[in-house]
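About this split. The held-out portion is used to measure sequence recovery: a designer receives only the structure tokens and must propose an amino acid at every position. Recovery is the fraction of positions where the proposal matches the reference. Here is one held-out target exactly as it appears in the evaluation file.
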């Protein structure tokens, strides 16, 4: 039944809004959506379009992808690594925090891939000043 999915996106948006500690009216203002329409989405009475979800995501400062997955517009992609899976599974992080961590992690991976650095690069690094300490 499609309405259960509609309800779940509304509940998810309300949960994210509550975590962000902003009111329904504030989210409506920053996302450019009318207060009554946003209320209907949260209560599961309306199914938001991808464009509306994008505006809501911007207002909540979370990834639009997270809302698309929750709304059933996109399939949730599998995590490439254990780190990504752990970040996505962490219930104590907001979607925005998760996305920032994943972006940083991915930038490190791409940097290492571009420079050919893989795995335990720290073990091969030369001493900082070339002198050994005597204990």
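Reference sequence for scoring:
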């Amino acid at each position: 039944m499609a309405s259960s999915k509609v309800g779940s996106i509304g509940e998810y948006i309300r949960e994210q809004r509550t975590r962000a500690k902003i009111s329904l009216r504030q989210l409506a203002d920053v996302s450019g959506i009318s207060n009554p329409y946003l209320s209907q989405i949260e209560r599961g009475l309306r199914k938001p379009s991808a464009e509306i979800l994008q505006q809501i995501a911007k207002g909540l400062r979370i990834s639009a992808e997270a809302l698309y997955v929750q709304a059933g517009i996109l399939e949730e992609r599998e995590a490439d690594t254990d780190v990504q899976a752990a970040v996505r599974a962490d219930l104590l992080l907001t979607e925005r925090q998760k996305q920032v961590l994943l972006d940083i992690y991915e930038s490190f991976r791409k940097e290492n891939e571009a420079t050919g650095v893989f795995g335990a690069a720290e073990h091969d690094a030369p001493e900082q000043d070339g002198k050994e300490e005597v204990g």
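Annotator remark: The longest helix spans residues 95-115.
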